[in-house]
Amino acid sequence: MADLERFPGLLRIIANYYIDFFRLDNNFTVVASKTIFKCDRANLLWNCKASGTALIALAIVDVDQSNKSYYGEQILYLMSINGESCMVTLSKQGPIYCVKWNPNGKEFAVCYGFMPARVSFYNVKGECVFDMGEGPRNDLYYNRFGNILIVCGFGNIASGNMEFWDVGGRKEIIKIQVPNTTFLEWAPDGQLVITATTAPRLRMDNCYRIWHFTGKLIYEFLCKETVELFQVQWRPVSDGIYHPFPLPTLTSDDKAKAGLIFRSKNADESHPANNLPAGSISKISAYVPPHLRKRGIGKGGLDSAITQKAVKSEIEKKIMNLRKKIDDIAKLKKRMLNGETLEANQLQKIEKECGWLKELEALKLSTEN
What we know:
This protein has helices at residues 252-256, 301-337, 344-351, 353-368; strands spanning 4-7, 10-13, 17-22, 30-36, 41-46, 54-61, 73-80, 85-87, 96-101, 107-112, 117-123, 128-135, 139-142, 148-153, 161-166, 171-177, 183-186, 192-197, 207-212, 217-222, 261-262, 276-277. The chain is of the alpha+beta class. It has three domains: 15-132, Beta Barrel (Lipocalin), CATH 2.40.128; 136-281; 282-368, no CATH class. A four-stranded antiparallel β-sheet has the order 5-6-7-8, with no helix packed on it. The chain has a four-stranded antiparallel β-sheet with strand order 9-10-11-12, with no helix packed on it. The radius of gyration is 26 Å and the shape is globular.
């Protein structure tokens, strides 16, 4: 269809695409309609199966004519069965990675923008009601009751970041990291979640883990090197068996139990030091020899000061080196978002970002002591 049709004394714009809402009666009456002028394809999402009063239309243009995004261009529309419609205004430019309705059907969440991505909540009028800020994120998962949202950063943009958010309280419950996650699914009870590393996406270190929404690891199954895991899934249950539940405020002890269990290779797994959750591992400060501790400037004090200065100088060198590596990773991520194909060693460098950030934080802490 031509974009423009000319009539005597009149210029009429013809839309390339449109969405119609039909009532399922004898005449299939049109109750609402929306024209879209820029679209190659679209994803349509109803707010909930029971009522179906509103719909999100994610219009996708495969090629971004401005060459700003490798992901093409996306435009978000909100429509209702009473005929009202609007384009959802996003506060940051860039691709739309994910959009999900809350199961209550009253609001939806959008993950969007050039990295670091932004996550915002919108009501059924298309108004922004809450903004989470920015971070390395690209996926969203509501539990069946809509009171918890997992905001994830999977793939090369982050080391498996999982943020558990209290939707009603608008606050973060806990944040953990589960690297190499290729699959995530909430359990029917809305409290447990399963993550997995599966083939053919990844053929090494296949496994699955069951988590509580407080970040505690409930169960872990690690496949043997010769075994590939293709799929895991919760057993479905009927509605009405599980019910909404209150969300507790986590204590420092609760947070210490969150995250993966750290185990050294070829180490004695029965030893407590080799079975610590990530949340219980404190930041490492620099080691100071006993003869340098609490030493004054009296006899031998000058030698002590010189030694401490030399140690600090070495730490500063390490900090500068780590900062350079992290800056290089930021440049690599920017190149990847612009559509460039990275080499294998560059992708491996991106995967090391989390470890380098932790090491940098520990070194900064040691310089303050």
